[in-house]
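Bench notes, afternoon.
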Amino acid sequence: MALARFFRSCEEISPRLLTRDREIIAPLCSDWTRRVAGGAAALVRPSTEEELAAVVEAAVQADVQLHLQGGNTSLVAGATPFGDSVLLSTARLRSIADPDLPSLSITAEAGATAAEVNAALAPRHLKLGVDLASRESATIGGMVATNAGGIHVVRYGSMRTQLLGIRLVTPAHGAIGRLSPLYKDNTGPDLAAIAAGSEGLLGVVASAAIKAVPILEHSVVALLSFPSFAAVAEAARRIRLSPVVSALEFMTAPGMDLVSRHLGRSLPLVGEVFLLVEFESAFQLLDHVAEVLEDVAPATSALAFDARGKAELWRWREAHTEAIARAGIAHKMDVSLPITDLVEFVEWIEGAFAADHRSLDAYLFGHLGDGNVHVNLIGAEPGDLGPDEAVLAKAASMGGSISAEHGIGRIKAPLVHLVRTPSEIAALYALKDAFDPGGILNPGVLLPSPRGGHAIANAAPGRLA
């Protein structure tokens, strides 16, 4: 009855709003990693903020749960629907305004991708400060909901620091927020900051006003190799002092070998750990880069100054995710550590953890400039949370986080207690109740749903529910 009532309401809102076509819905019901598979009774795709608000209100009235999805690039089942719920996609909310040059900002709807926004900014020699390998499919709404980080956090910060305004559709309060590109607005808690990283628990991002940064004329990309993680961490510490560093990415030999096979290319360097560094400036960089790299004295290095060469070096880093996905269904851990503890953590993964999990292959890479390590494990059953918990508990015990940029999603919801006290979790539930008292948005994501639908530890392989 509830779904039938909701379907009727959607038909009244717009005849093209809802579909129950299984061929359209099925491809949207699996996590990007293929570790999680779900299902949905229907798919709704609003085309305007007004339609979005009407859909959320209809779900409230019918008591129907909505699972939110942007580009479906979640690595933690944060956008995977389950049960007799409805999948709400922002794919049709694609409008992008002209760049606001005086404020160096741009306003875009939730379904616009990072690549599309950058294409709108490029003629004005601007770009987004947040960049990530999934830029062609990652949407603005999803990037806000997960507080996306990516490769340039060391220079520009995460998505939360880019937001100047937001429009958020909530079950309790309808559409709220504003898009005025104000750099200063000290009139109470910042709605955009609260929404960033909330993973759709509080509301559906309709649009956002986002900072833009200049595209700098000069850039150099360097790929360096080192004999150990301790050596690369020390080099990164010294390189990070440069005022023109925009990326500091590390990869280890097993991952680079995997990428080499995936791309059908020979490795450009020999080593155990690799560091990819990007320098960007409005001024000539060659002398500065030469001085910085001479100071760290890598064993071997490759430099690129032209667009093609830089893209080829970046490919060694950005192809990791697709190469790992091709190798098998990965358990993907996304942890952040205090910079001073990175070496100890990586050595634990490669030592004690590897000894206890000999059947697993571990591939490590990440953002060394901000302490973010991506741990990818191949060989574990999809529904086995044991390896995940061991890695995440270790990070938490060292004062780190169990999610640096991927979010908690469904997979890590049972493990939030590793980094949040009971009082903090209670406060999160209270915040959820203030925005979504009926619990209709993204049940089971970030916080286990009191209405059920979250039993990952006991799920059948390949179908975490």
